[in-house]
Write a structure and sequence with these properties.
The chain is α/β, with parallel strands linked by helices and 210 residues long. It folds into two domains: 178 residues, 3-Layer(aba) Sandwich (Rossmann fold); 27 residues. It contains eight helices and nine strands. It has a four-stranded mixed sheet with strand order 4-3-6-5. The protein has a three-stranded parallel sheet with strand order 1-8-9, with helices on one face. It has a two-stranded parallel ribbon with strand order 2-7. Helix 5 runs antiparallel to helix 6. The longest helix has 26 residues. The N and C termini lie far apart (59 Å).
Length: 210
């Protein structure tokens, strides 16, 4: 799960990671209007507030939240299908949603993306040209409260250079794949099966030499 304040470049980092791996990016659902160049089903599932509420009633989200009058949520079905097929999934998710989702996915790695400075974050948000001055101020205030929760995450990546940030996240993913954790039993069983097969081959070889 990857979180961070609006304007930190989470989307660009996730795109960079999926372009270099076989991981899939979970597509969130939102009631906000698409920004320029955003495509339904690729960047978000854009739905009405009425449809979003129907999903809530159906229990169709890992988590959902309201941000500045718009709803965001992570649909369960697409993520579970990918996991069942053996594909690792990245969830680009806000802070409270990450906490909710971790309850049902305790082994997931949480990565927080932080801007190099408050001034740079404001520059990035303003540069998008999609928000009013009031909304920009609200986003910056929210960023302060989100960054205060970085201690709840496993990793923190400073996005002062996109390529470096992508490399840092890839390094985290690699290290997570090398952890024993819940895979200990599988690792041991795989080795034991190989050792048993190797022993059989040794016995056959010895008998063949007698």
């Amino acid at each position: 799960m990857i979180s961070g304040p609006s304007g930190t470049g989470k989307g660009a980092i996730c795109a960079g990671v999926t372009a270099r791996t076989k991981m899939a990016l979970s597509v969130s659902m939102t009631t906000r209007a698409p920004r320029e160049n955003e495509k339904d089903g690729r960047d978000y599932f854009f739905v009405s507030k009425e449809r979003f509420r129907e999903f809530i009633e159906e229990g169709g989200f890992f988590e959902y939240t309201e941000v500045f009058g718009e709803y965001y949520g992570t649909p369960k079905a697409p993520v579970m299908k990918l996991l069942e097929e053996g594909t690792d999934v990245i969830l680009e998710i806000e802070v409270n949603g990450a906490a909710q989702t971790r309850e049902s996915a305790p082994d997931a790695a949480l990565i927080f993306i932080i801007p190099p400075s408050a001034a740079e974050l404001e520059k990035r948000i303003t540069g998008r040209g999609t928000e009013t001055a009031g909304l920009i101020a609200s986003r910056l205030e929210r960023a302060d409260s989100e960054i205060a929760q970085v201690g709840k995450y496993d990793y923190c990546v400073v996005n002062d250079d996109l390529n470096k940030a992508v490399a840092d996240v890839l390094a985290i993913i690699r290290s997570e794949k090398l952890r024993v954790g819940a895979d200990a039993e599988r690792i041991i069983k795989r080795y034991q099966n190989g050792a048993a097969e190797n022993k059989k081959n040794r016995v056959k070889k010895v008998k063949g030499q007698e």
